[in-house]
Design goal:
By secondary structure, the chain is of the alpha+beta class. The chain has helices at 56-65, 88-104, 148-162, 170-177, 235-248, 253-271, 275-291, 297-307, 331-340, and strands at residues 2-13, 24-39, 44-45, 48-49, 72-78, 106-108, 114-118, 126-127, 138-140, 180-184, 192-201, 204-212, 223-228, 312-316, 323-328, 344-348, 356-360. Strands 1, 2, 3, 4, 5, 10, 11, 12 and 17 form a nine-stranded mixed beta sheet that branches. It has a four-stranded antiparallel beta sheet with strand order 8-7-6-9. A four-stranded antiparallel beta sheet has the order 14-15-13-16. Bound molecules: (R)-mevalonate. (R)-mevalonate binds at residues 11, 15-16, 18-19, 85, 167-168, 170-171, 235, 239, 317-318.
Length: 371
């Protein structure tokens, strides 16, 4: 049995615009999903046969990492509501990819090169052993075999295929590494650079540079209050809707540019630990998201209610339902305001822990060339 948990995430700035190469800032939240996996006689998830439509991310990871592997019993637990904009699918994908890697292990050949797993020389690639001969003796297994960068890469790949080919790596990287993550098409010298991610879709290659933003201690007392509308929002549909709108009305690209400018101001406010400018920038970001038509009356009502007791508030994630967030030093009052406006509120700190091993019992369970 192996068990891995991953946090959910909130996008503070730049959702939707990040798909088009503008910057975005996301933080991991305290709410988490835990995935456990063990060998079994048939594939099932939470006691039901694996259904590719219900669990496209697990199905995609299975075909990438476990095509010839024996059946697994998988269970998923946690407190990140699905379709809420809080990264439940990225969290599930990152934790599931890590479980499969723990069970499968990683290999190094006689020359010290990875034949299975991930190498920092090729950060957009995951190697799978090509032949029995290429497998060396040197094998890592269990939690030692897990590499956060690889889990983020695999989670991004399966998110992109579930979203019709278009997904930025902001969710998958935040849910894998935790803390605060910034994605942008260029390297930002004021931040700690992590890696480059590329994605090809309809003959167009997009590129993102991923960075870590270390949250200043002065912001430790500031909390996020998350308000859930209770409405299920589909990221794939929202991303597709925005794409269609831009095709119809190319001037909407200017709204994306404006979101990009606000996000850059938000990054500066973060670095200078200035919650007032952070909050104002969030309010402005929400107005622009309304202009893209990705908000809805229920989200607007919760944002408006929260703005009175917080530095600022906005929808988070793809919109069309799901959640909003408020940055506040008075989380109890802000939660009350959100609940009075009809939302379900919960509180999180800024920048929770990334992937975490919860259990690792007998993970050396499968050698692809021994069955
Ligand atoms: C979803 O959490 C964020 C979006 O920007 C989509 C993406 O980045 O892939 C709406």
């Amino acid at each position: 049995m192996v068990r891995v948990s991953a946090p959910g995430k909130c996008i503070l700035f730049g959702e939707h615009a990040v798909v088009y190469g503008h910057p975005a800032v996301a933080v991991a939240i305290d709410q988490r999903l835990t995935v456990s996996a063990e060998l079994s006689s048939q594939w099932d998830i939470d006691g039901k046969p694996l259904n590719a439509q219900k669990h496209p991310h697990v199905e995609a990871l299975k075909s990438r990492m476990w095509a010839h592997g024996p059946p697994l019993r998988v269970s998923i637990q946690g407190d990140i509501p699905a379709g809420s904009g809080l990264g439940s699918s990225a969290s599930l994908s990152a934790a599931s990819a890590s479980c499969l890697r723990m069970l499968r292990g990683r290999y190094v050949d006689a020359n010290g090169n990875w034949t299975e797993g991930w190498s920092s020389d090729e950060p957009n690639n995951v190697y799978f052993g090509h032949s029995k001969e290429s497998f060396g003796e040197n094998r890592l297994h269990g939690w030692d075999a897990v590499n956060e960068d690889e889990s983020a890469l695999l989670a991004h790949a399966v998110e992109a295929s579930a979203q019709g080919g278009m997904a930025s790596p902001i969710d998958s990287s935040t849910c894998s590494h935790g803390g605060c993550i910034v994605a942008f098409k260029e390297k930002l010298p004021e931040l700690d650079w992590l890696y480059t991610r590329k994605l090809k879709h309809e003959e167009m290659e997009r590129k993102w540079e991923l960075h870590r933003l270390v949250i200043p201690e002065k912001l430790n007392s500031i909390k996020l209050v998350i308000g859930h509308t209770g409405i299920h929002g589909s990221t794939a549909k929202q991303v597709e809707m925005v794409r269609g709108k831009i095709q119809q009305n190319p001037s909407l690209i200017q709204v994306m540019d404006a979101i990009g400018q606000i996000t850059k101001r938000g990054i500066e406010a973060f670095l200078s630990a200035d919650p007032v400018t952070l909050g104002q920038s969030m309010n402005e970001n929400h107005l622009l998201l309304q202009g893209l038509n990705v908000s809805c009356p229920e989200l607007d009502a919760l944002v408006e209610a929260a703005q009175l007791t917080s530095f600022g508030a906005k929808l988070t994630g793809a919109g069309g339902g799901g959640c909003m967030i408020a940055l506040t030093s008075d989380p109890v009052e802000t939660s009350r305001a959100i609940e009075l406006a009809g939302g379900r509120a919960f509180i999180s700190s800024l920048g929770g822990q990334g992937l975490r091993c919860e259990d690792d019992v007998g993970s050396l369970s499968w050698n692809p060339y021994e069955i």
